[in-house]
Amino acid sequence: MQHILIINLDGPDSILLTAPFIVSLKTYYPASEISFLTFGEENEYSKLLPSIDHFFQIEKKKIKTFLKGKIFPDAQAINSLEKTLSNICRQNLDSIIHTGFSLEGALLSSYISLKSITSNFYGIKFESTKKLYPSNLWFLIQQSLMNYKFNPLNPTEYLHLGNNLFFDPQIPRRNSGHKNIGILLPTKPEDDFLPFQTLVELIDHLRNSGGYFPVLLVDFQKINREYFTKLNRYFNYELEIIYTNFENAKKTLALLDYFITGQSLLKYLAHSEGISIIEITDNMEAPLIGPKNIILKKGADRIKGLDIFNCLEGNFYFNSVDLQLFSCSQDRVGYRLQRLHGKFSFNEEISRLMARYLVGALYLQERDETILSDIADFPQKEASEWIENQKNLNNEVSGKLLNILRLLSLVEEGDSYKKDLIVNLDDLLSFSNSESLNAIPILIFKYKIEYSPINELKIFENNIFALKEQIQVVNSSIRDLEGQVWNKKKESLIKKAFGNRVNLNEELPQ
Questions:
Q1: Residues 6 or more apart from 493 whose CB is under 8 A from it?
Q2: Does residue 165 come out as left (phi exceeding 0), alpha (psi in the -120 to 50 range) or beta?
Q3: pLDDT digits (tens, 9 = 90+) for 201-215
Q4: DSSP 8-state assignment for residue 312
Q5: pTM value?
Q6: Is domain 179-343 classified as CATH 3.40.50.1970?
Q7: Residue 493: how many CA atoms within 13 Å on its side-chain side?
Q8: What is the rounded average pLDDT of the residues 47-71?
Q9: Tens digit of pLDDT for each residue in 183-196?
Q10: Using H for helix, E for strand and C for coil, what is the string for 12-25?
Q11: 3-162 CATH pick, 3.40.50.300, 3.40.50.2000, 3.30.1360.40, 2.40.10.10
Q12: Which one, of 99, 104, 107, 146, lies nearest residue 126 by Cα?
């Protein structure tokens, strides 16, 4: 039996975001015994997670006190920590998994790992140098790309890959009869996730359709009574409104077939239960991605209730033009966003898709041609401009990298070469803030050298040569896309020349 400890001290959102990962752990290791450690103030959230056998907690004030000093301050503090965590440290742990990024979580991960020397560790902890460092490549990539504009993977995918699992989301529920549609209600008067008029329109469409039953949910007792009273009065007090709490959350979600939500803790639980989600958001930083999920990005105009109803129906015809709509497309890593409707920045869309393609090429030894095919369907002008811009950036980066390699062989001959090396290195690292595809390997290189031992020239050289190889993969990835776009153009020209009468699988007349 596998004994697994999960540590998360990053707050309710991060705790509940681990739910799909825990489902995967139980699928891969059905006989495992899973424990969960969090702050006492957030222990009720951890109890909402599926398949947890034991719950442990630590006082937030106690761990914060430790962090005011050094990482491992003095004997008295260590003894106090040992008393607090004695039940955990006595367990025969096979794996310790830190699913967050907080200093507190890293501290506890480091301490428990020292006490459980035979266990495997996954995540972020402190090394002997008292620096934060990830346990493996995937956590290193996640740390490196946290602020990258086109981060190619979502947190659930990083967590799975970092633990040698592949993300296999549950199949959405299918109900042949009436479908219960959970709708999250706004909790503050200024919350425009679903303005009153939009909500009224949506409920009207659901009630009149004959196939849907609206269930209105309040997120963990955050009640906006004035709003609810007004809404219920409008519908003659016939609405089903459930005030969700820690005791009834799972039972409530078990009734639903779809969940329409904005920023909500409930959405993470719904996601782990295999409930299809329509998420309405102002930004695309961390939408929930999974089978049958739909993401609506709001614009300046109000989303109409009919737009949301059409998403349920699978009819993507909208009254609101000022919105963007995404579905989720499966690939080897998990699910990625796929645009369906709205005005898009093609430059951003191509950059986001190619970032995912590059990570696959670099670290999974897999080039996902479905990504290239999706980009080839974009307007050719935008795709060609993106390719040309990236090729120019790649040439710049390659030139600076070759110059650094040349200077490395000369640094022992004088200080002037060292200064030139530093200047060229700064120029190279400046590309980490750009929209260049090269930013991905450069950010990872930057993270490695910042956390390498000081004055270790050999480690620096090894990282530079590794970066050189990765820049070559960037170049080949751009060529892959260029070839796909050209093939699409050639196919279009053939169809046009022969009036769409030629079967492209047949040989053309000589």
A1: none
A2: beta
A3: 999 999 998 889 999
A4: H
A5: 0.88
A6: no
A7: 7
A8: 78
A9: 988 776 556 678 88
A10: HHHHHHCHHHHHHH
A11: 3.40.50.2000
A12: 107
